[in-house]
Amino acid sequence: MSDKPIGAPGELDNAESETSELDATARIMPGELAIGDPAGSTSSALTVLVIDDSKTIRRSAASLLSEEGWHVVTAEDGFDALGKVVEHRPDIVFADIMMPRLDGYQACALIKNNSEYRNIPVVMLSSKDSIFDKARGRIAGSEHYLTKPFTRRELVRTVLKHTKKTGRALAQPLSESRL
User: Fold this and answer.
1) Cα angle at 159 between 77 and 150, to 5 degrees?
2) Which partner for 95 in 74, 104, 132, 164 could form a disulfide, CB atoms 3.0-4.6 Å apart?
């Protein structure tokens, strides 16, 4: 897959008519796309949670991250994500900022204020890149901030950087030669 930016402003997000190769290989439930190892698997694959109200961003990130051999779970908003954190206990979370019901800042703060989940790295994803937005993410408890559009390289490096701190990173991603 190319290293072109994902999530560029103005990118079409036609959730109803969008089709992809993922439909043939993944069981897609409303609000969730899980790719890679099934939940409860004995595999040592990392679990990555991607929270974004854009179906295009969720699918793109899931596709790119699953190419690394990682289990990817998606949520369409912060409220949906809280249940997925409990159910899947991800090794890292990518959260969009502007979402309905519960935004990324609020979801991050709730994860970080819970003693069971506060050690899960949270990375904010947004097309907003002002110093105020980045500072607000830090205040909510996020470890990192990625600005959309992002590339596969940025996603993979961010996962490796923040999961190494928790001791969960694979020794080498499947596509390290492409980084």
Assistant:
1) 65
2) 104
Q: Among 128, 131, 68, which Cα is nearest to 99's?
A: 128
What superfamily would CATH give domain 22-163? Response regulator (3.40.50.2300)
**Spans of all domains in the chain:** 22-163
Query: C-alpha 46: how far from its chain's center?
Result: 12
